Structures are given as C-alpha cells and as structure tokens.
Description:
By secondary structure, this protein is mainly beta. Helix content is 8%, strand content 48%.
Amino acid sequence: MSAKRVALAFLLAALARPSALGGQAVRPSQRGTVMQMIATTAVTVVYNRPSARGRRLFGGIVPYGRVWNPGADEATTVTFSKGIRISGQPLAAGKYSLWMIPAARDSWTVIFSKAADVFHIPYPKGQDALRVQLEPERGGFMETLAFYFPIVGPDSGVLNFHWGETILPIPIALNR
C-alpha cells in the first residue's frame, strides 16, 4: 500500500471515530434549526429531534394534561427578532423556551417561557411570558419531530409542530 493510501486510511478511520467529534458519541435526538423571515422579523427555532421508533407518542410517552417540552435534551427555544403576536396575543422580541400541554380531545396549551436556556425537564414554573390555546390537526406520519413554516406571507406565517400524525399550527403575526 502506498504512503498516500496509508495516510488516507488513517484520516478516514480518525474521522469515523467519536473522538473526531470531540470525544462525543452521536446523540439519538439530532439537533435541528429552522429560521424563517416574516418581512423583517426573524423567527428561529432550535431543538433536538426525537424519533417515534414505533412508540405511542401522545397519551403514551408524552402524557396528556402535563407540561412537556417538544424536543429532547436541552429545551426547544424560539427566538423572535421583533415583537410579534401568537394567535392574536402579543409577545415581545426575545428568546423563549417552548412548552406544550397536550390534550386528548381539546385544544393544546402552548407556553412561551422567559427561562430560555434550560434543560427539557423540569418545566420552569413562574417564568411564563405567554400561554395560548391552539387546535391540533391530524396529518401524514412524521417519524422525527419537526418544526417548519408551511405558510409565510408579507406580515404573518404559521409555524407547524409535527410529530407522528399530530400537527399543531402556531399562527404568528407581525405587530402593527
């Protein structure tokens, strides 16, 4: 084997090892980020993406009626570069952790917490910036939890939370 091939083999072996990633193993819930401009307002969601892996999600690993962070490891965060409205309610510019209270038959509670840089458990009581009630929808199966913007207009948009067959649209409007 030539010296170049030996060097290439060592390089590829080093990159394939966890030590090449700073000694850390790859997490089962990969980090995700989605950013969307709505006019001149940036909306950024940072989260870790758990997978369903055949488990019953809502009413199963995520109990109904309890506060839950939609993600894994560090709490999911949402940052707004300017003040906006969520389902008609004002929310100041800033970074928030995102929490939900799923319900079996009723609307879900979505909570924006001022305690932004926290772990996904426990819920930081007393730090709520806003709570809104939103209606979940059924959709196609999504194996890995996702946030995305299916609708963006000149002064509003919709941020979808989607996991399993559950979609929770979060309406965002710019302040006027």
